[in-house]
Amino acid sequence: MARAAFINFPAHGHTNPSLPLVSELVRRGEQVTYYSFDEFRPGIERTGAVFRSYQPAFSFDHAHVDENQVRLAATLLEATQPIVNFIAPQIVAEKPDYIIYDSLCLWGKYIAHVLGLPSVCSITTFALNRRVTSSTASQTINLIRMSLNAGSYMPRLRAAGQRLQRAYGLSKPGVLDVFSNSAMLNLVYTSAYFQPFASSFPESFKFVGPSLSNGSESEAPAFPELGEAPLIYISLGTVFNEQAGFYRMCFEALSGLKQPVVLSVGSKTDIATLGNIPKNFVVRNIVPQLQVLRRSVLFVTHGGMNSVNEALYYGVPLIVIPQAADQGWVAQRVAELGAGKTLMKARLSAPVCEPPRRPFLPIPLFGRQAHE
Fold it and tell me: Which of 35, 75, 175, 346 is at 20 to 30 A from 57, Cα to Cα?
């Protein structure tokens, strides 16, 4: 029986895929101590892990993440040393045999280095390297634009990197290093087929497929008032979802269909402010996504990696409207492989839709339907 410290990034998209892994480790007799925010404690403790909180050493609002990745990188670099100072003594007292850390948790990499422990990186997005990040002109231009708009965050990023280099003796981290902190073993929650340029990564990267769990969802059927009709499902995820104009555009575009539409608007949107809801729409702040996807014929999504993985697992065609972060790469890969189409949010309009004759290209890239 070994002991592990799991050092994760406090956000739904980074927490949810890790829970099945932790459950399996616990089932096999491992003792896992899991570091996150209090908000995620119930789900973490259901796995059998012991919860530990970052707070108050790390104050981060995961519901309002900066869309500018350079500013976000500077924020995370500045948070790294205080987090290490806060949790490292606790980890030493726990005496773990190895460290698992999320790819955004540079502090996890430093703790493993300082303590001389084997390390595993949990990667909930695409694995990133120079080949991936420079693969499209639009993403390169976007990174340049973010750098130009980062203002005082660029010198802050450099200064924080220099402090970390002096403190821990590792090379000075840059923007890419903040988002891709490789370890001795790297678990990527997608398939090698879906991962761009998978062959450019060393053997230490294991593409293990999507990590899905029903543990937090009710067993009661979702939306029984809709009967057995297949659905169109729309969601922009848990972070970049304050998009009232987009939701009204969906009303305009899809209100003429007989097809039921389930729209998840997130916890930050007041549904009452959206105006008249068409009769074929069900609008909720939060929905049981896996249940809804099982009966969906189309998923309109922001392109978050977890949402796309879940849709691909159930063979649901996608329309991807990337909002920020890695979603542009995910959208491009979906389109390249014929699993869906990509739309740019700045160019959206709401023409009247006709009922689809058949879903387009529901190609099962992996998961349940890939084996049926």
Answer: 175
